[in-house]
Amino acid sequence: MRINANRLLTSLTELATIGALPGGGVQRLAFTAEDFQGRNYVAERLRLLGLEPRVDAVGNLFALRPGTDPDAPAVLAGSHTDTVANAGGFDGALGVLAAVEILARLQEVGVETRHSVGLVSFVNEEGVRFMPDMMGSLYVRGDLDPGTLRSIVGTDGTTVGDNLDRLGMAGSDSLIGTPIRAFLELHIEQGPELEGLNLPAGVVTGVQGLRWMVVRLKGHSNHAGTTPMAKRQDAGLVAGQVTTSVRKLARDIPGLRGTVGRVTLRPNLINVIPSEATLTVDLRHPDQNRLDDAVAKMKAGILRFAADEGVACEISETASAPAIEFDREVIEDIKAGMDSLGLEPHSLVSGAGHDAQIMATHCPAAMVFVRSRDGVSHNPREFTSDADCVTGADILLQAVLQLASG
What we know:
Layout: H1 5-16, H2 33-48, E1 54-55, E2 61-65, E3 74-80, H3 93-109, E4 117-122, H4 135-141, H5 146-150, H6 160-167, E5 180-188, H7 193-197, E6 201-207, E7 209-218, H8 235-252, E8 257-259, E9 263-266, E10 276-285, H9 288-309, E11 312-321, E12 324-325, H10 328-340, E13 347-350, H11 355-359, E14 365-370, H12 386-405
Helix pairs in contact: 1-3, 3-12, 8-9, 10-12
């Protein structure tokens, strides 16, 4: 069985018109009117299939096609339809619409599966207006209670609850407590690996762990022309040393990715030695032990640089996500699906976070990636070919059929 390619591609085009920007690109920030319209588009597609779209207390959208065994746990596929600002049309949307297409094929062919097969479109995966990101899957996993979630304040000063009520976006159904056999997510790679190998798709075996730090340095401000070099307490110098050490650490630890994404200096004047510096450090690795080792080495190096310059230093961790290994059986089912389609079952690790990463500690989970042109994402230039979108959906269909057959 294959998906209906024209129908899938048409739905991608139609969804991309919701929140379309004049200069190209798409913008459906979570809990906005555009986000709600995008979710309603998916809900209407489900109604046309004769399936009931259901919505939980935080706006997660889901639907189940019953299996022959009412006691068998459900096989779910999906992703998200919210976007970052000035985004492309594939991130998240492809995974949700591929799940819609799988349900459409099962309905029109009349295939009976032992396990129920369902779709879930998680709310606020991107975390642009409201943190944390991947909010909808965290809620389903049980990490966020409704009251706490509704009280989260966004960048515009409103709360999640304000927006849910304004849009009428919340429902009374719930996925919490529903037994789940597996969760599968189709997604664009957002990186260059598949394109570099000239492969249309790959199976994702895990997601990198992540540790974020904010480093605050406090030295002494003085005249740039009159202060001898040996008598300086230069917070800017230490910030530069930290920045270069992140790159060196990434060279020394294979597989580590390190980034200093933001640096601010005070007083930020051309002729004044910086008295204060604040910078962020982002470290990621697919092996948790190596990630933890990198963080320990990074912290020790920062403290050493600061002490050598006579600068006070404060390091605080602002985010942490453990490295995740996806379920081996689900991975093998995806590989079998790729093999049945004559595709090389290439394995890779995700460098970005996804809802499947959250669900993986709640139920068996894995992902399918399709190649991204130039590795570009979160950008209007984001692009995956029609052929690769269809290939990814076909792989997902084969894996769902295998898992749902029991």
